[in-house]
Amino acid sequence: MQFKQIPPPEYMKDYIRFFWVLESHDTNVSAASFRTIADGCPGLIFQHPDKGILFQNNKQLPGTILYGQATTHAELRISGKFNTIGIFFYPHALKTIFGLNADELTDTCLDLDLMAGEQGYRLSQQLADLSSPQARIDTLCTYLLAQINRNDQYADKAMQHVLDRIKKANGNISVKELREELQLSERSFERRFKQHIGITPKLYTRISRFQASMQLLRQSDYNKLSDIAFENEYADQSHFIRAFKEFAGYSPFQFQKRSKELIENLSILTK
């Protein structure tokens, strides 16, 4: 199994966190299982139609997938040899790139070929015909840039400001404080946030806080779990563990012992 993480070109860095490529040419591999965890971001996956079949929670997925925010963990399985490329977007991407209300894709995905019609079908065919990851990345960037130019009216500086505030605070910030900064009613703020990000501001801050705690866990930057809980302003260690299980599907201890992260928030499952 070969895995690569590839940074986006400079002109896409406001939209794409990174590309990833996962390939296996082992004919003896019957299935590889992976776990995704809630990370506050949507994404895109292309799987070569002749190399492997991708399942999520035992449901077969289409060849080119655009997926939204995940509010919990999920399992992916690829049968046979596989040749897959993916994109981890920033949280606002569904609205600013594709012009979609992000909450329409929360905890689900769609076939990009069906959404984009003939244009999406041509993209899938182009990607299937290309052999190198870089050629596929270039093709995807060309397609996405055209989408951005078409949907530039959906860019929302106020929502980007809110996202930046939440990130800097590692999720430990009052939703009321954010709402009052924009001088919006509670209902208007939540509706606008869900349209652009896909979930409520409160849930997004919870996922952001969980992700900040995950980073400390990855870096082993703690002496005991209660240190992570305290650093990220959980009420106590039990609240931290409960949130971890909700978003990762493991306790922190199980995560360290049973999962091997290929990249952040995507682990290969071990027995």
Automatic annotation (TrEMBL):
Lineage: superkingdom: Bacteria
Organism classification: Bacteria, Pseudomonadati, Bacteroidota, Chitinophagia, Chitinophagales
Natural source organism: Chitinophaga filiformis (Myxococcus filiformis)
Signal peptide range in chain numbering: none
Pfam families, alphabetized: DUF6597, HTH_18
Stretches assigned to the HTH araC/xylS-type domain: 156-258
Name of the molecule in the record: Helix-turn-helix transcriptional regulator
Sorted UniProt keywords: DNA-binding, Transcription, Transcription regulation
